[in-house]
Amino acid sequence: MHKIHIADKEFEILLDNDNISKRIRLIGIQMNVDYESRCPVFIGVLNGSFLFMADLIREIEIPCEIGFIRVSSYEGTESSGAIKQAFGLPENLHNRDVIIVEDIVDTGFTLTHILKEVQKQQPASVKVCTLLFKPTALKAEIEELEYVGFEIGNEFVVGYGLDYDGLGRNLKDIYRAKM
Ligand code: 5GP
Ligand code: MG
Ligand code: MG
């Protein structure tokens, strides 16, 4: 299926599940090398990262811990810029190697907020792993952005965890809104 409708919008396929899986496997291989004997803490940003985390973590063969936090900054298809509170950050990150797992980095405001909260606990290291990255939409500088699945254009996407007003998270593939 290459075209779908969600609510009032038409979407077309951007990345199929095979393509996504292959990329995630490669990121996993890289992380297994980078974090060998370090027991990193993966922190997924809900809701969007739940499928990405589930698939990524099964490529990780070294000891690791997994947690989730919740933040939201989006209404409709445009970033409000107003970042709400981050809930559920683990309180034991001191001297740990932290990997923040995101579905997508758009303006970068959400991540900037999360990174500030994480840094308060003085972890040993912090890196960000995002499935999707919109380089031309970025408004904040994020040095910690180490693992990127796919760079995409400044367009609105759904599927594989990402929603359009609550819908579409269950789709196996990633779609972009048709102009
Ligand atoms: P940022 O703070 O980087 O602007 O936005 C980050 C969050 O906005 C992402 O974690 C995601 O939840 C949401 N977001 C940004 N771009 C998109 C998009 O194209 N599609 C969807 N569904 N969500 C997006
Ligand atoms: Mg997100
Ligand atoms: Mg959303």
UniProtKB/TrEMBL annotation:
It catalyses: GMP + diphosphate = guanine + 5-phospho-alpha-D-ribose 1-diphosphate; IMP + diphosphate = hypoxanthine + 5-phospho-alpha-D-ribose 1-diphosphate. Gene3D superfamilies: 3.40.50.2020. GO terms for cellular component: cytosol. Keywords: Cytoplasm, Glycosyltransferase, Magnesium, Metal-binding, Nucleotide-binding, Purine salvage, Transferase. Pathway: Purine metabolism; IMP biosynthesis via salvage pathway; IMP from hypoxanthine: step 1/1. Its cofactor is Mg(2+). It is an enzyme of class 2 (transferase). InterPro entries: HGPRT (IPR050408), Hxn_phspho_trans (IPR005904), PRTase-like (IPR029057), PRTase_dom (IPR000836). Residues 13-164 form the Phosphoribosyltransferase domain. Its EC number is 2.4.2.8. Pfam families: Pribosyltran (PF00156). One of its GO terms (biological process) is purine ribonucleoside salvage. The keyword Lipid metabolism does not apply. Belongs to the purine/pyrimidine phosphoribosyltransferase family. This is Hypoxanthine phosphoribosyltransferase. It comes from Pedobacter africanus.
